[in-house]
Write a structure and sequence with these properties.
Blueprint: H1 2-28, H2 32-35, H3 56-61, E1 66-73, E2 79-85, E3 88-93, H4 105-117, H5 122-125, E4 128-137, E5 144-152, E6 156-161, E7 167-171, H6 172-184, H7 192-220
Antiparallel strand pairs: 1-2, 2-3, 4-5, 5-6, 6-7
Length: 221
């Protein structure tokens, strides 16, 4: 019994230590605020919603975009309708009804710089080390939007929607946190059936370890 208990303990020592360590990280949440902070282009002035003189029906009637439309603040400070026309994302100035062109690289960089300047973690981003073009699903336009993706020296990746100006960020810190979650929940392989098998295998081993420990304790007493 003692030998079996010792063997089970050796089998479980690594998963248990890993589980305790990752659980401690989840409790402390060190740098979680930085990892999941939301970035946005700060508005230079208060938005006057009364400037949205163009009705959504007029935008649709002009053939500028298809319904549904979303009225929101554009990074340029204007109010804009976001939507799509034949699967092409559109931003329409809500005051004039004129289309707003997608941001160029320089404008996108300026918007990202403005967003980072208002972040308490700005110093951790560092300088730009590269950029690329991409596309991403947008909840504002309902379609794939062109995205300017900027990589920084601090291991961060900042993505800016050229049409809506929405900004997302991720990086090495997010990858580390995701890895700790996978380790904690025994998602040790890229194959879900194998991970499920690990969980199912660990349950009887833990129960058997507890049973043998209790049996030896009662025998000793």
């Amino acid at each position: 019994m003692r030998r079996l208990h010792r063997l089970l303990g050796l089998v479980l020592v690594l998963p248990l230590v890993l589980w305790i360590a990752t659980g401690l990280l989840f409790h402390v949440k060190h740098r979680y605020g930085e990892a999941y902070e939301k970035l946005s282009v700060p508005s230079e002035r208060a938005v006057d919603w009364s400037t949205a003189r163009i009705a959504p029906a007029e935008v649709i009637a002009r053939g500028l975009a298809n319904p549904p439309l979303q009225l929101a603040i554009h990074p340029s400070g204007r109010l804009a309708y976001f939507g799509a026309l034949e699967n092409t994302p559109k931003a329409i100035d809500a005051a004039t009804g004129e289309p707003i062109e997608p941001a160029t690289d320089d404008i996108a960089r300026g918007w990202i710089a403005a967003a980072l300047s208002s972040s308490p973690n700005a110093a951790r981003y560092g300088d730009e080390v590269g950029h690329e073009d991409a596309t991403a699903n947008s909840g504002s336009t309902g379609t794939l939007d062109p995205v300017f993706v900027l990589h920084t020296r601090g291991g961060k990746t900042v993505s800016l929607d050229r049409v809506t100006g929405a900004i997302r960020q991720t990086g090495d810190l997010n990858d580390f946190i995701d890895a700790t979650y996978k380790a904690h929940y025994l998602q040790w392989t890229p194959w879900e059936p194998v991970n499920i098998a690990l969980v199912l295998l660990s349950i009887p081993i833990v129960l058997l370890l507890a049973f043998t420990g209790l049996r030896m304790a009662f025998r000793k007493s």
